[in-house]
Design a protein that fits this description.
- The structure is a homodimer.
- Chain A has helices at 127-145, 182-192, 198-206, 249-269, 302-307, 316-324, and strands spanning 2-6, 13-17, 54-57, 60-62, 75-79, 101-103, 108-113, 152-159, 171-177, 212-215, 219-222, 233-237, 275-280, 290-295, 310-312.
- In chain A, helix 1 (127-145) crosses helix 4 (249-269).
- In chain A, a hairpin with a 2-residue loop joins strand 3 (54-57) and strand 4.
- In chain A, strands 4-3-5-7-9-8-13-14-12-11-10 form an eleven-stranded antiparallel beta sheet, sandwiched between helices. The first copy, chain A, has a three-stranded antiparallel beta sheet with strand order 2-1-6, with no helix packed on it.
- The first copy, chain A, has two domains: 2-21 and 31-179, HIT family, subunit A; 183-324, HIT family, subunit A, CATH 3.30.428.10.
- Chain A contains six helices and 15 strands.
- Chain A is an alpha+beta fold.
- Strand 2 of chain A pairs parallel with strand 15 of chain B, so a sheet runs across the interface.
């Protein structure tokens, strides 16, 4: 049973998810070679997971039934076995203190298994595999966004133990929540006070500059001037577009190209690097979708927690030089 | 040369501190037994560090001179060899992009070596050692707060490699910065909209409750209802008091008792646990000082970075039961 709790006096939330402490500990190594027969995400082990909510196979979208599981799939979406939130939860107001406020633990937590093979890595995905993954991202966000009570769908990938991945089989995650996250509220409030879209301006200003890593027809990939962590990368559409739901297949294909390229460059520059990537998007037409890739090379410690200010030991300009060194 | 950079359009900052990438890598283990003759923080190795800015010895406050170092000290404050910010920096506006803003890399970064012995731990500090540490905290914050251009002094302790400590000899740190951190701005804006102090109310409401860990005459130690991480602990003065500078020695002594007790309980419940603790305080009389202890048991990953919402697998109520189990 999870519970979403509001801060004493700030518009911030945390999720108390006691069920998640039962998760198995993370694997010890992330080796391309290691193929575990016990991995529940591997092709053939479908019955070790909850029934899939969506199975992408040969151009079709299917769904597991209780009696059996679909085999030979391309991408498989399953409910997280240790969900942070759950659609069944309805535990009402738990706290009797007037300064505190308890929200329901309502929500959805889904795992997107990006491919059937344990050793697969998105940097080796073909164009069509990458496009399919982007389509799944779009589909699943749209699917959960349309549920009553869902205010935001967080779509992200944790890669590597240091980035919080508890299983090594390549996967993304999606958590649909009944509150608007403070990160998005803060951005939207600031954006609405401007007479222009700051992301449109970032895309224009950074184009061709020392922080630009790559550009294609629809996107710019850059190391942001404001980089919280070493080798942070942002992918920003050149066109003002608020969310994945407005992406056509052509744009999805270009986006997939950017993500694969970013991950490939990072892995070449710092082999085995753990990273998180996150989609920032909203239904509000003032928002401008962006994807942020945050490699894990350091620890946010006391100073960062105290001030919200990150100390980054590698400037984005230096990171770009390193990333593009051997290209 | 460090540089404080403002976010493209939010009132947030990061510090680009390229010099810090030269830091030696963190030690491999945190063993009570291990005594390294090479540790620059150990008594006898004073000449391996920059000259101390303040040396506390037998009730006196001294200062190293270039020709020699003070020996047999109780607590020693030195400039960080790999500072995030530096008083000498004055590199002006580095960026030519109109959407970005560069601040000076001005500031101070100090290490407070809490004792001469490599194996010392604050949970074994005597009352007078603990009181001295609190006095040093108060002195050093006051000292830097009075410098021109300093807007905030962040005082914190990282304990254990997983909490970002790059050296194992017990120490705290202080970073004085020329901007008001977004964490404090956000809190102060919210507090000023209320007709009461939320921390005064927290201290009242949590007193004697299921989240209360300990109380003495001046402080309450609690697991906050809004706990971002498992076993998070807050220490809140019962009296409305904005910063350490207003603490008399009696209050410092009670505060030291709380911090030592918190660290002792955490270490008993989860031996070897890494943690960060941070002082939240301000000169604004509306603020109410509080100390937050954040143990490191999990990783803030994609979801947390995307939403600012932390998933905590142990409720504060459960954590308190565990912490008080054997007391």
């Amino acid at each position: 049973m999870s519970e979403i709790r509001k801060h004493y006096f700030l518009d911030e939330h945390c999720i108390i998810a006691s069920g998640r402490s039962k998760r198995p500990s993370a694997p010890k190594a992330y080796s391309d070679e290691q193929v575990s027969s016990k991995c529940a995400f591997c092709s053939g082990n479908e019955d070790q997971t909850p029934a899939a909510t969506a199975v992408y196979k040969g151009g079709m979208i299917l769904r597991d039934i209780d009696e059996g599981r679909i085999k030979d799939w391309d991408i498989r979406c399953i409910p997280n076995l240790y969900p942070a939130l759950s659609p069944q939860t309805d535990n009402g107001m738990l706290s009797k203190k007037p300064t505190t406020k308890t929200l329901k633990g309502y929500g959805f937590h889904e795992v997107i298994i990006e491919g059937p093979d344990h050793g697969s890595r998105i940097q080796r995905f073909t164009d069509s595999e990458m496009l399919l993954l982007m389509k799944v991202y779009r589909d699943r966000v749209l699917h959960y966004r349309s549920h009553d009570g869902v205010e935001y769908v967080s779509l992200f990938k944790n890669w590597g133990k240091k980035a919080g991945a508890s299983l090594e089989h390549t996967h993304s995650q999606l958590i649909a929540i009944p509150v608007m996250p403070s990160t998005m509220v803060k951005e939207l409030v600031s954006i609405k006070q401007l007479d222009h879209c700051p992301y449109c301006r970032i895309a224009q200003n950074e184009s061709g500059g020392e922080r630009c890593i790559y550009e294609n027809d629809h996107f710019i990939m850059l190391a942001p001037y404001f980089s919280r962590v070493p080798y942070e990368i942002w992918i920003v559409p050149k066109q003002h577009i608020e969310s994945l739901s407005s992406f056509n297949d052509d744009m999805l294909s270009y986006l997939g190209d950017c993500i694969r390229r970013a991950v490939t460059l990072l892995d070449k520059a710092i082999p085995g690097l753990a990273y998180n990537y996150m989609f920032f998007q909203d239904q509000d037409p003032d928002y401008h979708l962006n994807v942020r890739i945050a490699p894990v090379t350091s620890i946010a410690a006391g100073f960062e927690m105290n001030t919200g200010i990150y100390i980054n030991s590698t400037s984005p300009e230096t990171a770009v030089k390193h990333l593009l060194e051997n290209t």
